[in-house]
Structures are given as structure tokens and as C-alpha cells.
Amino acid sequence: MNEYAGYPHPVASGWWAMLRFAKDGKPKPIMGDGDKPIVFPTETEALREINRHLLRYFNGQYLRSGVKCEAAKVAANRLFRKGREITVERKSA
Question: Structure pTM?
Fold first, then answer.
């Protein structure tokens, strides 16, 4: 269903940080350079990375596709700078 999850998964050389988002349905490891899963030496380090990624996702630092949304944030700040609100008029079709 529409669930989010994050958990460490033991592998031979350490721990993978696994994330499951509602759009995917299956957990995936956090990927590093060369599209290879990052192997963390301890379970605690994997949990810290899981927390960091989930919080960045929920706080809007990533679009739902996983891409960073810095460009969207800059565009929004240009629209709403100096505390001014922009009014929008809707016209019926």
C-alpha cells in the first residue's frame, strides 16, 4: 500500500540503507557512485543515512522523482520575495 519505510539490511561486508517510498512499492538501497549500493560499516551509520534521506524527502528537498528541487525553490523565492503575495485570477473556460 502507500507506505514509507527505511531500515538497515545486513550484507556480507556491512549494512545497506534500504528505503521504500509509496510510489515504488519495493525497498531499494541508497545508491552511491556507479549505481552501486553504499555499504555502511555499522548499522548505526546506515540508520543515520536513512533518517537523513527520509527527512530530506519529506521536507521537500527532493521532488517525488528523487531529483533535487533547488531550481523550483529558487523560482518560488523569486515570486514571493519581500513578503509580497501574488494574487491569481482564475477565468472560467
Answer: 0.63
CATH of the domain at 41: 3.30.2180
DSSP secondary structure string for all residues of 18-78? EEE-TTT-S-EEPB-GGG-BPPBSSHHHHHHHHHHHHHHHHTTSB-TTS-B-HHHHHHHHH
Distance of CA 10 to the CA centre of its chain: 22
Q: What is the pLDDT of residue 26?
A: 87
- Residue 31 counted as domain residue: yes
pLDDT class of 10 with cuts at 50, 70, 90: very high
What does the alpha-carbon distance between residue 89 and residue 84 come to, in Å, rounded to a whole number? 16
